[in-house]
Each structure stands twice: as structure tokens, then as C-alpha cells.
Amino acid sequence: MEFISAFFGGFARIFLFSLVFWMIGLIILLFREMFNTSRFDIRKYLYTLWRMTLLVFEIVGYGAVVVGIVMLFSSEEKLTYGMVTFDALLLSALYLYLRFKAGGWSAGNMRMRRERNSRR
Predict the structure, then answer these.
(1) pLDDT at residue 26, rounded to an integer
(2) Nearest one of 50, 43, 46, 60 to 95, comparing CA atoms
(3) Which of 29, 31, 36, 65 has the maximum number of C-beta atoms within 10 A of its C-beta?
(4) 104: pLDDT strictly greater than 90
């Protein structure tokens, strides 16, 4: 029972840190739009927000692998941080699989619905 609790707790920790970093990025994005002199484009803003959300969740997932290993060797809670590392490895594998299926990291390779409709 302790294993399952640590397993889901690892995902919860990663998700919580992702939300914290996403909120920080959201505040930065809002201030950037607030002091922008050009006309506000809601479609561009939502696209930027979506890309930031995906990027933050990926970066925290990748970073949790390193942080989990460091905390595993420097803490007394071996099971907790072992599961954080294991969960981060699972999430990183999922993120890499989805990223490669979506066309890679470059913005030109991302297949979006808007681009597909504009080719008609």
C-alpha cells in the first residue's frame, strides 16, 4: 500500500510543481501582453498560452528526473524520491513519444489544426 501511495504521490508532486511554474509563466505572459503596444489578438495569445503550458509541463517532467535522483541520494525518504524519479522517467518517455509523433521541437514542424485548414 505504501508503494502505491508513493507512486501516485510522485505524480502529484510533479504535477504540483508544474502548476506552480505554469502560474509563474502565466503572470509573466500577462505582464508582457499588458505592456505590449500592439493590438491584442486573442488567438495568438491562446496559442502562446498553450505552447507555454506544454513547455512547462515537459520541462518539469524532464527536470524531475535529475531532481529526483539528487533527492534520492541526499534524503532519508528513499521510497518517495525513488517513485518521483520513476514517475518522472515515465512522464519523460511519454512526453518524448508525443513530441516525436507531433513532429519534433521546431515550431515549423508542429502540426496544428489551423495550418491544416489553411492549406485547403
Answers:
(1) 93
(2) 60
(3) 65
(4) no
Q: Which three cell numbers stand for residue 60?
A: 518539469
Exposure b/e, 49-84, CB count within 10 A at least 16 = b:
beebeeebbbebbebbbebbbebbeeeeeeebbbbb
Single-letter amino acid, residue 101 = K
Rg (CA), the chain: 18
- CA contacts within 13 A on the Cβ side of 111: 8
Mean pLDDT score across all residues of the chain: 86
- Give me 71's grid cell: 533527492
CB-CB contact of 19 with 26 (8 Å): no
Distance between CA 109 and CA 120 in Å, rounded?
A: 18
Sketch the domain layout of the chain as residue ranges.
2-104
Percent of the chain surpassing pLDDT 70: 87
Q: Where are the alpha helices (DSSP H) in the chain?
A: 2-34, 42-74, 78-102, 113-118
